[in-house]
Amino acid sequence: MLGKAQTRRGSPSGDGTTSSKYNPSVSSYRGRLAPSPTGFLHLGHARTFLVAAKRANQFGGELIFRNEDLDPDRCRPEYVSAMYDDLRWIGLQWTEGPDCGGPYAPYSQSQRRDLYLKTWKALRDAGSLYPCTCSRKELAMAATAPNDIDDEPIYPGKCRERADASSFDSPASVNWRFRVPDGEKISFDDQHLGPQTFVAGHDFGDFVVWRRDDVPAYQLAVVADDHAMKITEAVRGADLLKSTARQLLLYRALGLAAPEFYHCDLVRDEAGVRLAKRHDALSIRYLRQSGCTAEQVRERALQL
Fold this sequence. Notes:
Layout: E1 30-33, H1 43-58, E2 62-65, H2 77-89, H3 113-125, E3 129-132, H4 136-142, E4 175-178, E5 185-190, E6 194-199, E7 207-210, H5 218-228, E8 233-237, H6 241-254, E9 260-264, H7 284-289, H8 294-303
Parallel strand pairs: 1-2, 8-9
Antiparallel strand pairs: 3-4, 4-7, 5-6
Helix pairs in contact: 1-8, 3-5, 5-6
């Protein structure tokens, strides 16, 4: 079983604002806002970022803004400017970010490629990765269905025994997968939801850390960035619990200490479906234009 990260947790409060006790003798608190500019932010984002800001304030720490604009096909400049505008409108402030600088710049992922290449090389040299040339059609025919909506299918293992990783000077042209320890339990204490356990090879399989179109994947980038920016707690939605298990494996393979994790309850629509950026009627931008005040949006986000 993968060892648990150091924890400083108390009793969940229900509203996600004051449930853990942070010990400043361990390290000064550094949280982050990490939106992706692929659409307008919705009430689910508002809840997560409001909780992140309240926890940073509660512990007298810093709040860092990171623009997660990795995907060149989906990220748009107009959504970047909307992120800043909408989050400031609901009352959020940050101490470091693309718009105000800081000691760990740049704060946009599209400008941090050198760090991701260094991280890919470290994982490759450690024997943790292998190149995968399976086509989407092969994966669709062979892979089991995803366990959760939008989750990555469990990889069937066709390329798993490849031993030519060291012959690649660049990650381009193939998918690079992290070889998970099948059957191992990955456990951690979430600061809001309590003890969590996932089984590698059952709950998730060998996951992609670098895409064949030469774009680093979310799992690699967020681990590299949170470590480089000295983040002590990652506040995010509960849909990323399984991603946390994957990322703990990456931290271990890289020999890095993981931050604490706080997963917020998801905001859902009237049908019980978690919000996505396609829910335009529940976007912060739409609610603003509809006449809602910032206070009303904040209250709605935290009460849903």
